[in-house]
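Reminder to self: tokens first, then the designed residues, so the page reads top to bottom the way the pipeline ran.
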């Protein structure tokens, strides 16, 4: 193996992956801005935001499978020059995204009883529902935007997605400043102000994505929005059965982290707030790997469309190597600068800050532990989605996160008495098992020739 052999794949992966990484980081930055600014407002409000966004993300994870699932389909169709399939799959993914967003509103609206039933403190549950009753209206633009992101990224127009996402960040920060704290004569809305800011930005970003997708000369041949109301039930079912396992996989993984939030809430409000900070820092590095995972999906989809096993293998090696390097850098940063990173989220004048820094700094060591396995599991998922293999990964995720990760987290935290550290060790265990099983499935399938034969994965 020579560097010259992989250089074109590394260049292609970085050209495609870096804008996707930037888009995910910019999207994450909006969430970070909410967390930081609500953290300045109050500890109780920060705890409510952590649990509310966890609830929102469970619904988002379940619905995002349709938008993510079509990424590999679109890439394969473009590689085959199949214009009709590009239009059909993207349009029906948009239909499914809209339908799911509408069905998800009732549980978001009536979230307080659910949060109380899972052991959250009444004052935190009430504030969380206030947030979710507004934030729920952002689910539709977020899911539809995700589908259009996949559509444009598969056409290698990820740079535009990056700029549109970046444009939302200063708008979100400004609206947070006005609405959370009541500046410029606006009412002081706290967590509700953060929700209004987020929904406003999400709607703006969707409008820009729709406008660009409709204008783009290279995309006009697909006629995506022409007679958008026309049903295509065969493709609707195909995208549904491809995307549903992805959504359930995301819920299984996201549920592990949401479960850790819920159990941390049982330990205490301070611990939950500190946990939210450490978890969001870990999530920032995950966005880097997620961008590379999207690139892996597109590259694997292109190779599948062309039936080229060598292209698939070399592309997979390149994207895995890039993600590995990112993980090593993240480990070094988390181990060397934990207090500085945690301190960015907190008001130094708040008397609660030293306690929160102490708790969150301890958790950063465990965040460093799972960087490599988190990277490998999401790259494995991206490669398998590119070859339209989604059902077995769903089972792998359920086993890894709910039969391994969650019981270990509970046992170490509450039975063994390790508290917050035990919860994080459970996260490490679940992610490690998932990484091993997902990577094993992709490489064994590639060796057998499963991923480059006609049709869906076997």
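Designed residues (458 positions):
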């Amino acid at each position: 193996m020579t560097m010259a052999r992989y250089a074109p794949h590394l260049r292609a992966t970085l050209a495609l992956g870096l804008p996707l990484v930037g888009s995910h980081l910019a999207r994450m930055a909006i969430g970070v801005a909410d967390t930081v600014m609500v953290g300045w407002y109050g500890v109780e409000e920060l705890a409510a935001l952590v649990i509310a966004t966890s609830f929102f993300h469970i619904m988002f994870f379940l619905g995002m499978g349709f938008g993510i699932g079509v990424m590999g389909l679109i890439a394969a169709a473009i590689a085959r020059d199949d214009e009709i399939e590009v239009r059909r799959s993207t349009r029906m993914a948009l239909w499914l995204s809209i339908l799911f967003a509408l069905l998800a509103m009732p549980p978001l609206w009536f979230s307080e009883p659910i949060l109380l039933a899972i052991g959250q403190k009444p004052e935190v549950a009430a504030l969380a529902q206030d947030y979710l009753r507004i934030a729920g209206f952002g689910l539709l633009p977020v899911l539809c935007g995700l589908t259009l992101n996949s559509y444009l990224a598969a056409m290698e127009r990820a740079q535009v997605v990056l700029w549109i996402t970046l444009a939302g960040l200063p708008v979100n920060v400004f609206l947070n400043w006005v609405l959370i704290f009541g500046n410029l004569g606006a009412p002081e809305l706290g967590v509700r102000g953060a929700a209004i800011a987020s929904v406003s930005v999400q709607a703006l970003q969707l409008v820009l994505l729709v406008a660009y997708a409709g204008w783009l000369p290279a995309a006009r041949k697909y006629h995506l929005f022409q007679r958008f109301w026309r049903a295509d039930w065969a493709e609707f079912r195909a995208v549904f059965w491809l995307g549903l396992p992805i959504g359930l996989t995301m819920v299984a993984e996201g549920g592990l982290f949401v479960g850790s939030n819920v159990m941390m809430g049982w330990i205490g409000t301070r611990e939950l707030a500190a946990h939210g900070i450490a978890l969001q820092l870990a999530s920032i590095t995950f966005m880097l790997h997620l961008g590379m995972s999207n690139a892996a999906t597109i590259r694997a989809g292109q190779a599948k469309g062309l039936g080229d096993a060598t292209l698939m293998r070399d592309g997979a090696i390149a994207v895995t190597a890039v993600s590995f390097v990112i993980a090593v850098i993240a480990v070094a940063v988390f181990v060397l600068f934990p207090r500085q990173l945690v301190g960015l989220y907190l008001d130094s004048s708040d008397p609660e800050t030293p306690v929160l820094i102490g708790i969150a700094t301890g958790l950063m060591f465990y965040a460093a532990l799972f960087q490599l396995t988190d990277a490998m599991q999401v790259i494995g998922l991206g490669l398998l989605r590119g070859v339209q293999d989604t059902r077995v990964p769903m089972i792998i995720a359920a086993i890894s996160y709910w039969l391994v990760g969650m019981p270990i987290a509970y046992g170490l935290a509450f039975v063994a008495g390790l508290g917050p550290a035990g919860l994080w060790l459970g996260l490490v265990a679940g992610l490690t098992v998932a990484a091993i099983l997902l990577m094993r499935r992709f490489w064994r399938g590639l060796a057998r020739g499963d991923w480059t034969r006609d049709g869906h994965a076997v």
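The chain has a mean pLDDT of 89.
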